[in-house]
Sequence to fold (503 residues):
Amino acid sequence: MFEEFKGKKWLSLFSLFFLFILFFEMLFFMMRPLHEEFNDFLADLTGSSINYVALLIGIIAIPLIYSAYLVINNGIKIGKTQEAKPHLANKIIAPIVFAIFIFLFYYLISTFGEEAFLIKNMLAHYSVYLYLFLIICIIIFIYPLSTQISKLMKKTTSKIFSPKVEKSLILGGLMIIYLFLFAFPMIFQPVYVLGGDLPAKPGIIAHRGGQHYTPENTVIAAVYANQIGADGMEIDVQLSLDGIPFLLHDSTLERTTDAEEVFPSRENYLADNFTIAELTSLNAGAWFTTTDPYGTINEGKIPTDLLDDYEIAMLPTLEELLDYVNDTNLLLNVELKYISDNHPYFDQFSDIVLDVLIEADMDDQIWVQSPNEAILDQVESLAPEINSMLNIGDEPPTPEDFDDKGYDMINTHYSLSNKIFKEYIEAGIMVNIYTVDLKLSFQQAWALGVSYVTTNEPADFIEMTRPTWYLSKGLYIGIWIIIEVVGIVLILILKYVKMKKNI
Fold:
């Protein structure tokens, strides 16, 4: 069998190399909704703006093809001659490239911070396939491995056990590994394995109105969110130099307005250094139709009746947006953004915004989110009918601590652990997760039972009537018991075939 083949170690290394690079390549394809954010991230890091995703996919394809060639070529040689002798250059280059990609993988995870949690989400989502693959590998290689380990022990240890006992011990050790692989998916069950009924679908909050599909933080963005049937819209509020709340995410105007044309040499100034008259004179939509930053116009994903309105969208005040939202059922998730320390209304920022929100008389249709508990205490004191939403980070409060604070909701990144999400949900706490753009992440949030997700891909999630797949806990355990029994039977069959061959 396999133990008679020469060059197995190199073939195994090349196979591992191929699988790792294939995973790396697939990772980029699966993260399609985040390609532009990834490009922006690397553009900020390098100071040069190009399509880094396409470049990386092309670069990764080279070692992928190279490793596939090594596996196929050496596999054919082993099949024909029972021996593979890779060229010295391949023995040197392959491990070096393998090591480089492992380093790049680690670097991406550490650099992306909480966004790297996507990789963990993907692994969790596809963990069943990974477990199954490992079990199949154990079934196929259990006897070749036991023979190789036995040979290695003979070379490195003194004779203690008889050959029969020795083989039994080795085989037993491998079986323990096999049983551990079986137990692992039982202990660490994916979130789509449900102990009861499928929870209600999370409400959909369009991030900045649906950042990938509409000029963000504009009235037309609210029109888009309402038109596609989103439950709400998240907005970012700042304060003009003369104390009027307006909508903008960035601290400056250059990315999403025509400030460079209207105010030459001032486009890099902080947005709160402009008066409201100056701000509302700026076009905040043409940049989107001109640059098509997320490729959604080119892909035909935007309602054509809105495109002309995108062209003329202006930078709005908070009051203008509220006038539109007040006539809809849209929830409004309000985040207080930047304000300079030397701003004339610095100490009054939250007071001014709250006054405008209270004046709109929209009650619990409005959420105010902040990590600053002083602001949320102000909301609870002055406008208890408005929902107060605590932004939490790496040190989330316990459900009991959150209840003691007296706020209405929690707002958090999706990188929070499933265990903590479940604790909040079981305690009846409303949770909004941001910014969920991949369908598998949305499905995980759905299976967990969170109340709302904030997303740049609202239309895709609104169309979903159920997760792609989910299982009851009983069915999941039953499937793994069958897999385990079938695996053990196959191992015994292989043992029987091997014994018959040796007779």
Q: What stands out?
A: The two ends are 15 Å apart (CA to CA).
